[in-house]
């Protein structure tokens, strides 16, 4: 069976792909877009003529980039969710080199493209926001928190109805720690909630509400409420909840958005409160559907099919396994942030002080607000960037990659972090 070729550019349509039939079942068409480790194509089911979107994920890039858990989680979560406003995952196929997500095709494209042409009326903004909240409410009821809601992840079908997609950064209730909160730092900077920046743990539902508030603002205004070329200036505004409304915003909508973009998660409006808000309820009709219409039904494979259907090996439970899709990863990439009240230069000095007694770690580069550490055998890289959040607070972002950490252990977690944990602002 021919393997799908890598395209040279996201904007090009390679002639080689037009003749490929994936597993004898899907005829591959134009390239719709691409990301760091995946490309999305339009395709047609040869038997039924149905249009689908196929996301081709490179196993090698996923493993080397440390995204294996993210891809496995996305498959499992999309299998759990069946809703008219969520892009349906039809099946997952795999070859030696790639994993293929076969998904419902959203003919209307990205909502982002429509917003780029001009802002929406208040009524149209409300209509899409109602569909978005209905979907988010459903996800939360199934124990799923999206954590990366933005117009680029909202598609439109042929009837211009919303379709939520890209659950790669989503979390499930099983990931909630004993303190009742999530702790993984993720999301897109302009849409990230202030409590995520604070790295004290956060409620996944409240983080999604914040992102929905950003989306509603963008639909209505045509631009972002928090936006600045200087990332730290933007983070400061997010942290303080400082934004302005355009002059055409109605008083009711101003009030409603202020409740959505409340920087205090404790007083921020909840999904249930949104559903009962007068601005939201205007013209709202709750979507009625039969659950069985959206339950996953196993795809049957013909006797001559030479592929692995990932759904044959997934059973969504606390121990679901996708090991058959990937080889064991030798590289792991991890990123985390914390808030500190220390000055950037002092944090860098502390790191330098602590590694002086370590034989296998050296400073490769150093600046006033950043430091890059490397293992003498090139088996360890740690990058620390410090960004000023407020006059008295900084965000410290730590990115690290380690190869074969055993038996020496995790350099950051086991050796450096215990000595630096006093730098964290716990107020």
Automatic annotation (TrEMBL):
GO molecular-function term, one example from the UniProt record: protein serine kinase activity
InterPro entries cross-referenced by the UniProt entry: Kinase-like_dom_sf, NAF/FISL_domain, NAF_dom, Prot_kinase_dom, Protein_kinase_ATP_BS, Ser/Thr_kinase_AS
Presence of the UniProt keyword Protein transport in the record: no
Matching SMART domains: S_TKc
Broad class of enzyme this protein falls into: transferase
Alphabetically ordered keywords of this record: ATP-binding, Kinase, Manganese, Nucleotide-binding, Serine/threonine-protein kinase, Transferase
Recorded superkingdom: Eukaryota
Protein family (similarity comment): Belongs to the protein kinase superfamily. CAMK Ser/Thr protein kinase family. SNF1 subfamily.
Protein name per Swiss-Prot or TrEMBL: non-specific serine/threonine protein kinase
């Amino acid at each position: 069976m021919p393997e799908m070729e890598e395209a040279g550019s996201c904007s090009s349509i390679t002639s080689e792909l037009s003749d490929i039939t994936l597993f004898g079942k899907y005829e591959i068409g134009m390239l719709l877009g691409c990301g760091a480790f995946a490309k999305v194509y339009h395709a047609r089911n040869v038997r039924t003529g149905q249009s689908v979107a196929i996301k081709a994920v490179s196993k090698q890039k996923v493993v080397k980039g440390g995204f294996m858990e993210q891809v496995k989680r996305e498959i499992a979560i999309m299998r759990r969710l069946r809703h008219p406003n969520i892009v349906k995952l039809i099946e997952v196929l795999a070859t030696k080199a790639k994993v293929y997500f076969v998904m419902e095709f959203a003919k209307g494209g990205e909502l982002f493209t429509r917003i780029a042409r001009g802002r929406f009326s208040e009524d149209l903004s409300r209509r899409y926001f109602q569909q978005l909240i209905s979907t988010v409410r459903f996800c939360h009821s199934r124990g799923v928190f999206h954590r990366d809601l933005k117009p680029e992840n909202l598609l439109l079908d042929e009837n211009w109805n919303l379709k939520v997609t890209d659950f790669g950064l989503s979390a499930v209730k099983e990931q909630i720690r004993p303190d009742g909160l999530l702790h993984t730092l993720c999301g897109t900077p302009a849409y990230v909630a202030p409590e995520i920046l604070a790295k004290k743990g956060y409620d996944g539902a409240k983080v999604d509400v914040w992102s929905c508030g950003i989306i509603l603002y963008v639909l209505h205004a045509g631009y972002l409420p928090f936006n600045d070329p200087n990332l730290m200036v933007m983070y400061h505004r997010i942290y303080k909840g400082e934004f302005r409304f355009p002059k055409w915003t109605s008083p009711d909508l101003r009030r409603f958005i202020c409740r959505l973009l409340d920087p205090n998660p404790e007083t921020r409006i909840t999904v249930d409160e949104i559903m009962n808000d007068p601005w939201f309820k205007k013209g709202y009709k709750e979507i009625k559907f039969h659950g069985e219409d959206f339950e996953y039904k196993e795809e049957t494979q013909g006797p001559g099919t030479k592929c692995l259907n990932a759904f044959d090996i997934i059973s969504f439970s606390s121990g679901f396994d996708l090991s058959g899709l990937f080889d064991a990863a030798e590289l792991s990439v991890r990123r985390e942030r914390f808030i500190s009240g220390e000055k950037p230069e002092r944090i860098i000095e502390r790191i330098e002080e602590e590694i002086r007694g370590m034989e296998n770690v050296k400073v490769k580069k150093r600046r006033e607000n950043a430091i890059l550490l490397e293992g003498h055998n090139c088996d360890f890289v740690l990058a620390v960037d410090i960004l000023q959040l407020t006059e008295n607070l900084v965000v410290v972002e730590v990115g690290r990659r380690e190869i074969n950490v055993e038996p020496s252990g995790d350099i950051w977690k086991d050796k450096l972090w215990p000595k630096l944990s006093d730098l964290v602002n716990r107020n």
